[in-house]
Amino acid sequence: MERSIAHIALFAAMIAALGLVPQITLGFGVPITAQTLGVMLAGAVLGARRGAAAVGLFLLLVALGLPLLAGGRGGLGVFVSPTAGFALGFPVAAYATGLFVEHVRLRPVGLVAGLGAVFGGIVVLYVFGAAGLAIVLDKSPVEAVTLVAAFIPGDLLKAAITGMLVQALAKVRPQTLAWHRAAPGAGDLRL
Fold it and tell me: What percent of the chain has pLDDT over 70?
């Protein structure tokens, strides 16, 4: 239990730290940030429930006013800005990534993590992000999806990095991937 709490807090801190990486803000007010990498990693390493909890903790701290989002943003205003859909989608994206890695039986584990990151951290997150942009910027769904498409190349790179990091973690600390050990038929982490 204590280890789970420590992992959740560690990943919330990692997502916050990734907000310090320099960003590029697009013309419609949504930055390209490394924090989505943290969301992908939270789900891919911690699994669905603990990954979503880590991102939920991070968002709670943002809501309390801590300037943890990229660009030093925080407070309740974030949740009515053009980034609102993405922020609200973060825990769902981590959960979806974790659910994918917990239930899809492929080898190597890095491939599963990378595909899970594409599913949760891109497909699922973009649904929330596009919906938020459509509402806040008064865009049609097609216009909002077109705006969100600008993030695809960078997010595919982040999904690949997620897969590589999980693969490396499986080699050096396989016990960290609790979702994998708990899965039926997951006796080994063949690489």
Answer: 88
Q: What is the mean pLDDT of the chain?
A: 89
Residue 165 within any structural domain of the chain: yes
Radius of gyration (Cα) for the chain, nearest Å? 16
10 lies in some domain: yes
Which residue shows structure tokens 């969100």? 148
Domain assignment of residue 16, given as a range:
2-180
The Cα 88–Cα 152 span in angstroms is 19
185/181 Cα distance (integer angstroms): 9
Q: How far apart are CA 71 and CA 22, in angstroms?
A: 8
Evaluate whether residue 191 is within a structural domain: no
Residues 89-118 pLDDT 10s: 999 999 999 999 999 988 899 999 999 999
Domain count within the chain: 1
Nearest to 19 by CA among 8, 31, 35: 35
Q: What is this structure's pTM?
A: 0.88
